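Incident review: delayed structure delivery

Summary: a single-chain prediction request sat in the queue longer than the usual turnaround. Root cause was a stuck worker, restarted by the on-call engineer. No data loss occurred. The affected request and its eventual output are reproduced below so the record is complete for anyone auditing the incident later.

Affected input:
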Amino acid sequence: MPPRFCVVLAGLVLLCSIMAGACARPAQAQAPPPSLAELLSYRPLGEALVAWQSATGIDLSYDPGLVAGRRTRGIEPAAETPEALLRALLAGSGLVFYRLTSGAYAIRTEAEVAALRGSLSGYVFNRETGRPLPDAHVVLRSDAVPNARGAAADALGLFHFEALTPGRYEAHVTHVGYAGRVVAVVVRPETRTEVVVELRVRPGVIEPVVVESFLERPGVDASDRVLRPAEQVEAAGLGMSDAVRGLNNLIGVRVGDALAEVHIQGGEAGEHQFRLDGTPIFEPVHLRGLLGAFNPFALSRITAHKAGFSVSEGSYLAGVIEAEHALADTDGHPFDVQVDPLSVNGRIQLEFGAPDAVHGQAMAAARSSTWTWGVYRPSHIERLLTEWNTPDEFLLRASLLAAREAGASLDYDALVQQLDSLPPSRLPDLGFRDVHLAGRLRLRPGTSLYTSYYRGDNRLDSRRLATAFDTTAQEQNPDRYDWFNENAQVQARTVLGSRAFVTARLRSSIYDLRHDYSALSDSSESAFTLPGQGTRTVKIDLRPADDGNRIRETALEATLDGVHRGGAVQLGAEAVRTAHRFSINDVFTRSIDHDEAGWRMALFAEEALRLGPATLTGGLRLTYLGTSRRVYAEPRLEARYEGGGVAARLAGGLYRQFVNQFDISSISPSALFPSVRFWMPLDGTIAPPKAYHLAADAAWQPAPAWVLRLESYYKHQPHLLRIDYPALWRRDFEPVLGGLPITSQADFLEASRGRAFGAAAAAERATGPLRAAARYEFSRA
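Output delivered after worker restart:
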């Protein structure tokens, strides 16, 4: 008789005897009958397994030799489900079970089952942008496995499932703000299966400006870390969207009223960097939303990185503001047009290819000012520009000192009143135009190419008095600003296995500013006529002058992002070539003519370790400056806690800046701007500015509708740079000290120091479609 048949027969006999014995003793009616778990306790394992199979009707496969000589332990009555009871029968035996795709169960040793198990790894990313989707939810379901398993993608969009029973599964991938997707996968024994999942953005209202908060909201899905205003951010009273002004929604970021200068947590306007798709934008002025580098119609969001930002964001004293081009599904509406009192905007979006094969997206946007067309000029804007074009009385009086030194006998007070009352020959000429191009090509899941191009031209021309002289020929005395930005970049990204991806980018930025104005000269005589005072002749002349600033930056960057069981790691390298020229003439005793070109190279590494609800992140950035042949280190550290509706962050580190912005005051009485702004990379004659950051943020969600936030920072700035005006006005004409153009930064820059600190508190309440917020901020620098 076969051994297997004997085992089955013995099990049936045991089960029948147990049931017969139970039926033969009805005398003790007060005691409940023993459960199946109790009946199978302390029995030979082979007999207990046969009884379990007969009672449940579930097929069970195992080698009788595995169970020979083994006995069951005491089994709790609560183990009534088939799987729980089978698990209890095998407890302590060194055997485990797994479910086959047919629904039957098989018993093997723990080592054998571990070898037969498979695993699944995947990468979830935004189909439109190619970026990973952190915290995407993945639920794994199978008909053969009754209990579904869930996981969340990490910061790189990667997820993992270990010890899976071989068979066919469905991975249900979801993320707030994206259309969910179901992907069929087959897990094979002793094999790691990999899958790449693309999610499409769920169509919504066009939002040209979105500002991302630095501190993540606790207890809310990751997609809600981005604050999405319900309306477009408007420049008050001017009729057009101003992307930069949307930054006022951020705690710790202030946008000035007049020139729309951005200050991040007490920092100067030049202590941060604007970027568009990772390429620098050098912008001299925003002019209350009338002018600006950013066309909000072509942008999807603007992100501000504040105190304590990571090593991957670069080297700047205050922070980084990064704008991204809008590339989204057309949703059947590929064309958009917007007309406002100052400009005409147009955008076209195209999508091609198959969703599951090679797929591409493209966007083109253009904007042009309508002010010079004269079709429609709002009266409040005309009034604003007229007042802006009024000569400065202080500088007007100062410029008359030249005539006093020349011996002219003038009634200065009357002259100032007469000159100040002269109407402008015409309003300032305001003009701008720009074009944005962007495209993404997905070659295969997880591998994409992204490229973008931007060109923006701006012009502001005033023809009011440039000085106090020559009141009859105002058209010959302009104060004109012309500048343009041109940026291009191409980026490639691909997934490496199931735990890393690599990104490489080649970028180029060009900025060119020309400032033409009329300057004073004492080299020749000139006649001028004043009402009621006749003709005067003094040794003063008006001649064209020019302040120019050009900077070109080309860079190659590469980063490697990976995850491990304890956290994540990022490695990066970049090589940057910067060429620059700045000149200013006929303003100070000494002119500046600075021309510099050089390399800087940086390496950075950052690792994040997960310690339960806490994360500790440390990073180091090393920058080699070719002009000084020195290496500068920037260590940074961050500790973060999230759990129980509370989030807290403490960050700090050392920050330097290798491309700096400066402002030189204008002396023209009718200059539209109080200063001329320019950018310069360091030439090695002066050390780069540095600052130490300490930032503490906290957020608490006491109820689903409420979020309370606290933010504080302290910045110690032991080394800053500023313009040395006495050096520019030096009047000694020795060959070495004066009279010669300044060509070294150490000759017109000097070291200074400072500090900045502040705090903010905010409360937000969201109920249905309504949202209310209150905020208080304090800052001192």
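Verification: Residues 3-24 form the longest helix (22 residues).
Action items: add queue-age alerting; document worker restart procedure.
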